[in-house]
Amino acid sequence: MNAHKIVADFGGICYPAHIDRDSLSILSVLGEIDEYCGFTTAELADKTKLEGLRKLHPILDTLNIVTNSDAHYLENMRDAENSMELEELSAECVINILNRPKG
User: pLDDT tens digit string along 46-78?
Assistant: First the structure.
């Protein structure tokens, strides 16, 4: 059993964050995202790196890609350029979208 499955069984979402970072990311540490992990989503710190990463890691074509600000202070938060359409305003709706296979 993998972390994604365990977390999903508890009603949550588990995905690798900051996969584009040079240190402490799943790609920099393991070199790849294995299908066995069961991830449906991955997160980038800088979405401009996505196309280059897709060429090196084709699994990214099968995953939902999100970008988060990771800001620690309100003044460092990005504008609302990154958004998600929700059927309802709830955490459950966000989790369901991110747990849904791409496509």
Answer: 889 999 999 999 999 999 999 877 778 877 776
